[in-house]
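Need residues for this backbone.
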């Protein structure tokens, strides 16, 4: 269950990652030619969101037992 959920969350995290990358590209001036500064504004938000989605999906959802 953990691997399937991690893949699903990582895939779903591509949507906000793509929107953040587009926003970063627009904020960087929408350059026509690729430069190394675009790594920070385009690739980091996209792959960061995917990595966060995988980590959220991978973690164990065992709820701790509460003593009453």
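Answer:
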């Amino acid at each position: 269950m953990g691997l399937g959920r991690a893949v699903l969350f990582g895939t779903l995290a591509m949507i906000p990652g793509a929107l953040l990358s587009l926003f970063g590209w627009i904020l960087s001036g929408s350059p026509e030619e690729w430069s190394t500064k675009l790594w920070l504004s385009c690739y980091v938000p996209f792959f960061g969101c995917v990595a966060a989605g995988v980590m959220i999906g991978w973690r164990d959802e065992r709820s701790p037992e509460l003593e009453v």
